[in-house]
Design goal:
- The protein folds into two domains: 114 residues, Cytochrome Bc1 Complex, Chain D, domain 2 (Orthogonal Bundle), CATH 1.10.760; 91 residues, Immunoglobulin-like (Sandwich), CATH 2.60.40.
- The strands form two sheets. Strands 1-7-6-3 form a four-stranded mixed sheet, with no helix packed on it. The protein has a three-stranded antiparallel sheet with strand order 2-5-4.
- Helices cover 29% and strands 25% of the residues.
- It is built from seven helices and seven strands; from the N terminus they run H-H-H-H-H-H-E-E-E-E-E-H-E-E.
- The protein has 214 residues and is α+β, with helices and mostly antiparallel strands.
- The chain is globular.
- The site of heme C has 26 residues, from helix 3, helix 5 and helix 6.
Amino acid sequence: MKKITIILVSFFIASGFANYKEYKSFPEPTPTSKGHLIYQEMGCPMCHGHSGVGDGFLAQGLEPKPRNFTSFKEMKGVPYQSMYTAIKDGIPFTGMPAFNLNDKQIDDVISYVRSFLTENYITISTCLNIPQVVSLENIDIGGQINVEKDKPKLFSASLKAGEITLTPDFTAMRKIFNEKNSKLARVHVMLTKTTENKKEYLAIIALRINNCIK
Ligand code: HEC
């Protein structure tokens, strides 16, 4: 905590906040996981808020503002590696400080940050048209679920007997790779449930499609 306070203090002095004080208020939620504990002890809620929406007491003074960890739209472009680097090294020219945490601790806190959106999040890699099958047996689905794709033209997703099969569209992917001269595209599948007009994310699968064919 000391190191962060020092980082934060220098950050605020640098930004002209000479009278820096740290605020806490009751009730603070009881940590339920290692990642949650790190999130609280390292002061992440000061900016990102206890519920991850980015409403910490320091957030107002920041530009850019901390993003909303509960929004798929804002989180889909943030892969694991980007979060890892942000937490380890900070993000230059933003209020995001570097934290002195080891790899395991960073991993735990990233899982916690992911859980604001959904408890179930996996990333898988594939080559162009090689189908990937993901078993859902460890996910408590319960009732009617919807399969949503963020880029429906680029791949198909079919749900059958507790398994979801993801297949990139070879032609569409080749076209994208050629047009953009890129080697990697990222698409997402969301398993959602709608209860009382509120959308709940049950699981998110991030599929990294690599252009393995030269
Ligand atoms: C002093 C304010 C502040 C504190 C404290 C803080 N953050 Fe941030 N954080 C930011 C800002 C500002 C950004 C940049 C906007 C964005 O991407 O949300 C950011 C970005 C991030 C991102 C997005 C990274 C990316 O790739 O874009 C993650 C993840 C994150 N913070 C996690 C944490 C965690 C975990 C902690 C505590 C260990 C923490 N932050 C503490 C202000 C803060």
